[in-house]
Amino acid sequence: MPLDRTSAFYEENAETYAKRVRSLPKQLNAFLAGLAPGAAILELGCGGGQDSAYMLAHGFDVTPTDGSTELARQAEALIGRPVRVMLFQELDADSAFDGVWAHASLLHVPRSELPDVFARIRRALRTGGIIHATFKAGEAEGHDGFGRYYNYPSADGLLALLTKSGWRDITIEENDGGGYDREPTRWITVMAHR
Fold first, then answer.
1. What are residue 92's phi and psi, to 5 degrees?
2. Which end of the chain has fewer CB atoms at under 10 Å, N or C?
3. What is the pLDDT of residues 102-126, one digit of tens each?
4. What gap in Å lies between CA 38 and CA 58, rounded to an integer?
């Protein structure tokens, strides 16, 4: 299974990964601006908890989750509240959230499972709810230098998937940046409404 090495990386490197110097994603304020004050947000893949901490500090009702037990512990230490250990494929909420923040997390979902995960996210959102997700662009699934699995989708592929799944007001942007591996990265940012 492609996620075994990915899971092992985050378990074994949780403290280093969580405590790295990291700027908040530039899209975070735009995402929050699209929500009502105090809106309920589900963070999928909260990592070290920095984004959850920021959203909580701005008065949002945040439910942080991560697939790594060790990263969840790191996030709990930062934000002072429980972090649910959960894989994306285990999401079973129904109309419970106004927004889903999935920054650099869904990129680890096997391509074959992305339609189901997006369906679960759509079901978890209230009508009109918004998702933010980022992916590393590419054409074929693969692994990085740390052995982490990535689905490496194309912008066109993501647009087709979201359109077919009933999402609306879909916005997809691409830009260049980097990541934990310090390699040049083409990022795809997706925002869409239920």
1. -135, 25
2. N
3. 999 999 999 999 999 999 999 999 9
4. 8
Positive/negative CA dihedral, 25, 28, 30, 31: positive
- For the segment 150-169, the average pLDDT, to the nearest whole number, is 97
Question: What type of residue sits at position 154?
Answer: S
CA distance 183 to 189: 18
3-state secondary structure the chain: CCHHHHHHHHHHCHHHHHCCCCCCCCCHHHHHHCCCCCCEEEEECCCCCHHHHHHHHCCCEEEEEECCHHHHHHHHHHHCCCCEECCHHHCCCCCCEEEEEECCCHHHCCHHHHHHHHHHHHHHEEEEEEEEEEEECCCCCEECCCCCEECCCCHHHHHHHHHHCCCEEEEEEEEEECCCCCCCEEEEEEEEEC
- Structure token pair of residue 82: 């429980």
Amino acid making up residue 69: T
pLDDT tens column, 161-191: 999 999 999 999 999 988 887 788 999 999 9
Which of 121, 113, 157 has the alpha carbon at shortest distance from 3?
Answer: 113
Q: Based on the number of CB atoms within 10 Å of its own CB, is 186 exposed (0-12), middle (13-18) or buried (19 or more)?
A: middle
Q: Is 49 left (phi over 0), alpha (psi -120 to 50) or beta?
A: left
Q: What is the pLDDT of residue 3?
A: 56
Residue 2 scores a pLDDT above 80: no
Instruction: State both tokens at 128.
Output: 């009109």
Q: Which two tokens stand for residue 81?
A: 């509240």
